[in-house]
Amino acid sequence: MSLNNSIVPSIALETLEHSTQPMEPPAITADVSRQPQASAEDETQYPTGLTRLLIVVSVTLAYILTSMDSTIVSVVVPSLTNEFYTIRDVGWYSAVYRLCVCSFQFMFGKLYKTLPAKNIFLSSVLVFMVGSTVCATASVSAAFVLGRAICGFAASAMMAGGLALLVLCIPMRKRPLYTGIVGGASGISSIASPMLGGAIVDAVGWRWCFWMSLPIASVTLLALFFCLPASKPREEMTWRQHVSELDPIGTVCFVASLTCLFLALSWAGSRYAWNSPVVIGLLVAFGVLLVLFGLDQWLKGESATLPPRILFNRSVLSGFVFTLFTNSATMVILYYLPTYFQVVRGSTAAQSGYYQIPAIAGDIIGVGLQSTGVTLIGYYTPFMWAGTILMPILAGLLTTIKTRTSLVNVLVMTGFFGFAGGIGFLSPQSAVQMALPENDASIGLSVILFAEQFGAALFVSAAQNVFQNRLVDNLHTSVPSLNATSIGTAGLSGLRELVAPEDMGDVLVAVDQSVAQTWYMAVVLACMTIVGSATMDWRSVKEKQN
Fold this sequence. Notes:
GO terms for molecular function: transmembrane transporter activity. The chain is mainly α. The chain folds into two domains: about 10-245 and about 305-535, Up-down Bundle (Growth Hormone, Chain: A); about 245-305. It has 23 helices and no strands.
């Protein structure tokens, strides 16, 4: 999704361009060859003590890296435009990262199933370090975009395999708690990284936002190399069989289809009109390629990147729907909070960042309560229902915010909304681990992670178009002298220069109305989570599946 050529403030909205939800990695069995039993799980085979601690800390650091990299770029955009003397690629600085994360999820889910998890994960960390180095040393915009693509590719592998490493060292009944720890750290870093990035840019320059990834990645690499048990593939296969298992035709179709979709969403409404031949052609190409991908999966069956029996598993499909709408609703709300704070309330960019802290705290509390609760009672579905009930209520309350609403009330509501979004967010990961054999868990959880990334990208782009259209209409109604051209040229930060002081009150009301009207989409998305909650199985992580 491109934010260049947008009337939305660059730093404030880029800061929350990515999901504030913790991004949980799919699981995979590496060298765990035990067969599921109805009896209690044998926990003596797992690492304990310092070894387990180092593995968990290393996986957490890996997720912090991927989360930070997804959002820290927002604060370096002004510096990049000054460095490279161009704004043409601004939208791709973040979009290409998200595109690569989404596009290769299923491929890596299959890869972790057929090859040793340890080797793949360590290789992905090395590739991430290469991408960070390319970004830090880039002298032209194209090189920086390439570095972002490399980081996104590696991040996809790290996200798809992180929980695989937890499977090696954490018993099933304890995984929700550790998953919550990793997810909470990931969520905090995704929100806090723009604040950290701003301080780094001011102190030592934008390049250090990427140089700093190298020592963190090095610690992760060394700790996992020495502490993680050697992993083995599920079965012995030749390289030709490995290539066939990775389904190159399906992967190419899927990556190409998402590329067309992301290009269409990035260009529509900014560089091209929605009804332009370019946008229509890209959307048609997306549909055709997606159909070809689906046909390829159906024909290949078990050899497909995404076997139909896994995709249409009840828990996987329910988890996909719940995650898609939960993360999308959260993103639509949080994406436009900076607009409300900076434009309507007159806060600075730094202040609007601090005002996200209640949402972060609420999310952490929700995730922590869910993780602890599932560990204690075993059942995860009740927490999904809690999110389904609370999210529409809190999203609806946020649409009532006005220009004179108390700041305390706004912060309290955002805090509770963060809690509502976090309390059920990790449940689909537990559901997939219970519903699928461990050899298939990596693919099933890659579906959940894809829903998280794809939903945010899709619906935030849609919300951006809703916001722009409503803003133009509302401003023109309040101040007839304003039109789409003048608003698009000045941007929100320049509105004060376009209108007389006596009209500013009407302008602020128009902006406030536009934000509220955009948040109606979040209310609908939050309501749609009931589909996932209502269809999810009621199972306990304390029971081993047969």
